[in-house]
Design goal:
transmembrane helix, MFS_trans_sf, Growth Hormone, Chain: A
């Protein structure tokens, strides 16, 4: 209990508190919009492949603009940059709300919205993510990431439920209004923050191409960092497409569930993520490598439960029964997100402590580009697999990804244990 309470001490850092308030507010609005857009597009298309294509569309700006965003994140005023993109996204959403009062939100408008917000996101994300390591001491990064993730996951409970209810009751227009207001609140919060004065850069000026490659060079220079980034790539290639395409498609289109069923499942998944904050303080003594490994092992459990989707009798049991459907997918998502959120706390804390501050934005951008490529490929494959005659194929795809995540973590474990042994030998020699 004492360890858990000490984790909350980081909230005394006013700048950190404002940062996570901005992050969670913006996230709430985005997720509020995302679930409504997902249900809206799924209703219009009725096809897992077309649905996946719309979601994949939002990934292309990450690939095209990703490396550029990293350079900008390391060179420009973070405060002005973040506020600007909050205002741009908020302005678009409020404009769409006004348009929806007299017009219909068509698929082309959805395409434009997805592309515009995704473009702003990729130019915004590296800058925003590079703020945390500059305002929190390295020894407090695990606590900071734990608190930040818990608050964000709380927003993920509220957003799916409220987004589903608002979309179902009053339509997509009001969802745009809420999303727009959330971006403006986020901008105001960032405006109130006091950023640390940036020290003059001592690094040599690089050419544009070398500047872009800097982020990838940082990744390849550290084998453990490469292991962590590879794990993130596999998450975006195998796990995210299954969650964002497969679960809503199965619940609504195959099992005949209601929009609210999907909203409940999403929210229960977030309860699992929140529970991670209570586990993190209990396992700190195990070290980063072991804790990442524990999270990965935990993610295999729900993958095993999903195998039942390949049984037609099981599908028949779930079909038309909201209680069974919601219960089954809630259990899966609870375990999956508990394990995933636990693992991400240590995952993020590791790279935040290892990546040089002057290259941090480009590192984040390089990771986003890699993850974007993985997502596009994953959405395409998952869309095709769910269109086949059995759900066992996308489940096998997910299982392969989960096993690969374990395999790429092995180098991290081996290197860490060798370093720990060497340190123990040096301590013994000194004694």
């Amino acid at each position: 209990m004492a360890n858990m309470l000490s984790s909350f001490g980081i909230l005394k850092n006013k700048t950190f508190s404002l940062l996570i308030t901005s992050e969670s507010t913006s996230l709430f609005g985005t997720l509020f919009l995302n679930i409504a857009l997902s249900l809206y597009v799924l209703k219009l298309t009725g096809s897992p492949e077309k649905f996946a294509s719309v979601l994949a569309l939002g990934i292309f700006p990450h690939i095209v603009l990703g490396s550029i965003s990293g350079i900008l994140a390391d060179k420009f005023n973070k405060k002005v940059w973040v506020i600007t993109f909050d205002i741009l996204r908020g302005g678009l959403c409020l404009g769409l709300f006004l348009y929806s009062l007299n017009g219909t939100i068509s698929i082309p408008i959805i395409y434009f919205t997805v592309l515009f917000i995704a473009s702003c996101d990729i130019l915004f994300a590296p800058m925003f993510m590079s703020i945390l390591p500059t305002i929190v001491p390295q020894e407090k990064l695990v606590d900071a990431n734990s608190i930040s993730r818990t608050l964000n996951e709380t927003m993920k409970i509220l957003a799916p439920l409220l987004g589903t209810l608002v979309y179902t009751m009053v339509g997509l227009g009001t969802v745009f209004l809420v999303n727009g207001l959330s971006f403006f609140i986020s901008a105001i919060t960032i405006y109130l923050m006091k950023f640390p004065v940036k020290a003059p850069s001592t690094r040599k000026k690089l050419t544009f191409i070398k500047d872009i490659s800097e982020g990838f060079r940082v990744i390849y220079a550290d084998k453990r960092l490469m292991s962590v980034v590879s794990n993130a790539f596999l998450t975006h290639t195998f796990l995210y497409p299954f969650l964002f395409v497969g679960i809503p498609y199965v619940i609504v289109n195959i099992l005949g569930g209601q929009n609210t069923d999907y909203g409940i499942v999403e929210s229960v998944a977030t309860v699992g993520s929140i529970m991670a904050i209570f586990v993190v303080p209990l396992t700190k003594h195990l070290g980063v490598a072991n804790n990442i490994g524990l999270g990965l092992l935990g993610m295999l459990v729900p993958v095993g439960l999903l195998i039942f989707l390949g049984n037609p009798n099981f599908i028949e049991l779930l079909a038309g029964n909201s209680f069974y459907t919601v219960g089954y997918f809630s259990i899966i998502n609870f375990i999956l997100f508990l394990s995933f959120s636990f693992y991400v706390v240590y995952f993020a804390s590791y790279y935040q402590s290892k990546v040089p501050r002057e290259s941090y934005g480009r590192f984040i951008a390089s990771v986003i580009v890699m993850n974007g490529i993985g997502k596009v490929a994953g959405f395409k494959v998952v869309g095709m697999l769910f269109a086949m005659d059995s759900l066992i194929y996308p489940v096998i795809f997910l299982a392969i990804g989960a096993l690969m995540k374990l395999v790429v973590h092995i180098p991290f474990m081996v290197i860490t244990r060798n370093i720990e042994k060497q340190n123990n030998v040096e301590v013994s020699t000194e004694v």
